[in-house]
UniProtKB/TrEMBL annotation:
UniProt-listed Pfam families: DUF6232
Bias-annotated ranges (Polar residues): 156-173
Chain segments annotated as transmembrane: 49-71, 77-100
Top-rank lineage group of the source organism: Bacteria
Region (Disordered): 150-173
UniProt keyword annotations, A-Z: Membrane, Transmembrane, Transmembrane helix
Protein name (database record): Uncharacterized protein
InterPro entries: DUF6232 (IPR045629)
Amino acid sequence: MITYYDDRSVQVTSTAIHVDGRTFPLAEIGMVWHQRGSRSWRVLVGRGALGAALAGPLVAAVLGVALAVWLHRSLTVTVAIVGASVLVGLAVGPLADFLFEHLDRSYARGSRQLEMWARWRGRPVLLLRTGDALRFGQVYRAVQRAMESRRPVPGAQNSIGPSGTISRPRSRP
């Protein structure tokens, strides 16, 4: 038996798919497909907030320099305003790596619910629903590899449809 994917709730092997205590033998699965749900506005707002947190100090620094030039004050006041503005702009430096990492992770997780379905014993069954796009892709690819590695039915071939649908015609007795 080959294990293609294994985590706390999903295991994909060369013989079966195990999801949250349920087992679906590959020999009983005729087709696998996926569906995407609607976008999560919460995730998109979170990304916008991260972008604003990254851009905010830089915008404040540029506005401070523009204000110092526009006020036409003494050299000492102008240098103080420009210096404070540059310090505010530099404050984003230590936070930038942290914020970019969170922004990266938000894109890896995705902004939609993803579902993996299978035709099992002649009826559609929801195998997995998650908002984590990275994990979903890993599980889906593991299922593809497991389905492709099944012993072929004489006279038939495994096929992957245009939308990533995996199907394998059953032989007739």
